[in-house]
């Protein structure tokens, strides 16, 4: 990344780099080797290398940032850890609505959250351990970014604090909270001693690690669970300790919402709650939303109802048939129905969907969803159409 800083420090460096990125993106060559050679015929080697790298990173960033990606500079790690704009805006709006100001972003990365805080009207200052990434954050946001460790920052004097600890080490991704940078113990100390504070963590966060006075929010985007966010006591609602937020719909559910403990037979419709709902432990709250909603099994995240309900909190399926599961029986039924495209989902059944699909050898013009479930001692295959 020193090449990137060297280019930016040239006379008119940012403008020179933007023109080089535009040149690279305009090349007709699809082959990476030929593309790089073509870039080096028009640019000096250092500038070509940087422009090629930034063009690739911007293309990859479009999913998270949309058109904004074309205005930013990235590092590979910075892009990987950065939150998509819609989720960053969600967090920033909650902090702004609570009256937070003078926000300190303790692990600002390339500045994605600082930009969201700015859009929400919050004056943000960044702290970033890596000097190169800090320089990019300053360039991307126009905000002050201090170089240093989060633990050394003066977070106690900030009006609000946000922290997104790195979860990678020299050996790769780490799931050990003590291996985060900064470690989880430090993050929890900040949350416990700051009125307005939030921390972004991995969605696999263990509920047992969340102190009772904090709220844990699991967030999904387009069907994938992206993060867990811990909120300090000044940002919580009475009685709310767990929340699921589903985007782009922007629908939320909490442990304070009505819940249903009902368990019963499979009805005309089967529902799979969104991953954020499952991670937050709010399956029974979704059951209460469904007409006659109930779980198929106390240990299973599948829900059922006799009438359909459109909700972003769960994906619905119309039940066509139910079989006692065996590969042979399921293969014969798919052949009879001329199913060539089969979606396989499972709960409580030790099956590799990709391997099963090969065994089923689907063929034909029709498509179907197969939901495998262990209900009591029975292994069921539910044939269904998405609602």
Descriptive notes:
This protein folds into three domains: 2-58, no CATH class; 79-254, Rossmann fold, CATH 3.40.50.150; 269-386. Helices cover 33% and strands 25% of the residues. It contains 13 helices and 18 strands. It has a nine-stranded mixed β-sheet, sandwiched between helices. It has a seven-stranded mixed β-sheet with strand order 13-14-12-15-18-17-16. Strands 5-6 form a two-stranded antiparallel sheet. The radius of gyration is 25 Å and the shape is globular.
CATH class of the largest domain: Alpha Beta
Strand content: 25-35%
Task: From the 3D structure, determine the CATH topology of the largest domain.
Answer: Rossmann fold
**What is the oligomeric state here?**
single chain
Number of strands: 18
Largest sheet: 9 strands, mixed
In CATH, the homologous superfamily of the largest domain goes by the name Vaccinia Virus protein VP39
Helix content: 25-40%
Rounded mean pLDDT score: 94
Q: What is the distance, rounded to the nearest whole angstrom, between the alpha carbons of the first and last residues?
A: 48 Å
Query: What gyration radius follows from the Cα positions, in whole Å?
Result: 25 Å
User: What are the segments in which pLDDT stays under 50 over at least 5 consecutive residues?
Assistant: none
Query: Structural class per helix/strand content?
Result: alpha/beta
């Amino acid at each position: 990344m020193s090449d990137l800083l060297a280019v930016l420090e040239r006379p008119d460096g940012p403008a020179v780099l933007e023109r080089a990125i535009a040149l690279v993106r305009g090349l007709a060559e699809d082959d990476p080797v030929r593309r790089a050679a073509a870039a080096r015929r028009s640019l000096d080697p250092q500038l070509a290398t940087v422009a090629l790298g930034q063009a690739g990173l911007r293309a990859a960033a479009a999913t998270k940032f949309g058109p904004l990606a074309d205005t930013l500079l990235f590092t590979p790690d910075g892009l990987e850890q950065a939150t998509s704009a819609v989720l960053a805006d969600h967090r920033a709006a909650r902090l702004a609505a609570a009256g937070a100001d003078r926000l300190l972003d303790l692990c600002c990365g390339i500045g994605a959250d600082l930009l969201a805080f700015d859009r929400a009207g919050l004056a943000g200052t960044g702290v970033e351990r890596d000097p190169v990434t800090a320089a990019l954050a300053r360039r991307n946001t126009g905000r002050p970014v201090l170089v240093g460790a989060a633990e050394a920052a003066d977070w106690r004097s900030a009006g609000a604090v946000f922290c997104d600890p790195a979860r990678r080490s020299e050996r790769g991704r780490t799931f050990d909270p003590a291996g985060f940078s900064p470690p989880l113990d430090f993050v929890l100390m900040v949350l416990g001693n700051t009125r307005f504070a939030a921390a972004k963590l991995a969605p696999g966060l263990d509920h047992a690690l969340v102190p009772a006075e904090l709220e844990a929010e699991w967030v999904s985007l387009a069907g994938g669970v992206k993060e867990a966010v811990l909120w300090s006591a000044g940002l919580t609602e009475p009685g709310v300790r767990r929340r699921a937020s589903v985007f782009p719909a922007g629908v939320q559910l909490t442990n304070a919402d009505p819940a249903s403990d009902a368990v019963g037979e499979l009805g005309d419709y089967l529902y799979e709650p969104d991953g954020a709902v499952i991670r937050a432990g709010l399956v029974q709250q979704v059951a209460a939303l469904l007409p006659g909603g109930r779980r198929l099994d106390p240990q299973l995240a599948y829900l059922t109802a006799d009438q359909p309900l459109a909700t972003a909190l769960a994906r619905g399926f119309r039940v066509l048939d139910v079989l006692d599961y065996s590969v042979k029986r399921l293969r014969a039924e798919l052949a009879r129905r001329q199913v060539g495209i089969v979606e396989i989902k499972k709960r409580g059944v030790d099956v590799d969907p990709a391997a099963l699909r090969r065994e089923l050898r689907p063929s034909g013009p029709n498509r179907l969803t197969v939901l495998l479930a262990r209900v009591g001692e029975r292994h069921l295959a539910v044939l269904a159409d998405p609602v």
